[in-house]
Amino acid sequence: MLLAENLLLLVTDDASGRLYVRTDPLDPALAGANLIELTMMGKVDLSGEGSAGKPGRLIVCETSPAGDEVLDAALRIVLARTGHRPSAVMRPLGRDLRRTLYERLAAAGAVRAEPARVLGVFPVRRLVTQALVQQAAPDLGSAVLIALVHALKCEHKIVDPRLSGLSRRELRARAEQIAQSSWTSQALRQMIDATTAAVKSAAAAAASAG
């Protein structure tokens, strides 16, 4: 399952089928998850100080198919915007992505679609809960998901503070600790930071629009 699919499941209430967060910040988070996954696969990187052109710009290291149609589509978008900052691909990467992911999850039997909601049982929450509450060391994928959940400010929706014994502040502090730990490469850190910035920008724009 893709990082973006797992993130979408994490922020979907498995009882009501409703999202824990607004779609405005969620869509760039899902887009960033695909960009991060391509980086983890070695398909995408960022230019360094010694590279031709400006540092911190998108480069495609490997153009062969990623083996997944969603990631392949994302790779084509990045390829068309080589030399741009990661922020330049967030909007095109996120276009129609949420709908596509829900359709894939429904086709795979991970969720059941009903009018205005999506129902299912999402085991990815167990790994995130173990890392946040039991302080188990997360694997790379779980750490990335926690960083994205932290950017969306919905730790307390995924792990109920009343049941975990931790306050909302403690959950958020633990998520931030994981998000800022040195478990990632510089390029991956920059992709996560770019995603976080896009999420914050979208949330601020939505708030100002009322």
Structural summary, described in words:
The chain is mainly alpha-helical. It is 59% helix and 6% strand. The strands form two sheets. Strands 1-2 form a two-stranded antiparallel ribbon. It is globular and about 55 Å long. The relative contact order is 0.19. The mean pLDDT is 89.
Elements, N to C (H/E): HHEEHHHEEHHHHHH
Number of strands: 4
Q: Please tally the helical runs, counting DSSP H or I stretches of 4 or more residues.
A: 11
Q: Radius of gyration in whole Å, from Cα?
A: 17 Å
Low-confidence stretches: none
Strand residue content: 5-15%
Tell me, what's the shape? Answer: globular
Q: Features of this protein?
A:
59% helix; mainly alpha; two-stranded antiparallel sheet; 11 helices; 210 residues
Please summarize what this structure is.
It contains 11 helices and 4 strands. With 210 residues, it is mainly alpha-helical. A hairpin with a 2-residue loop joins strand 3 and strand 4.
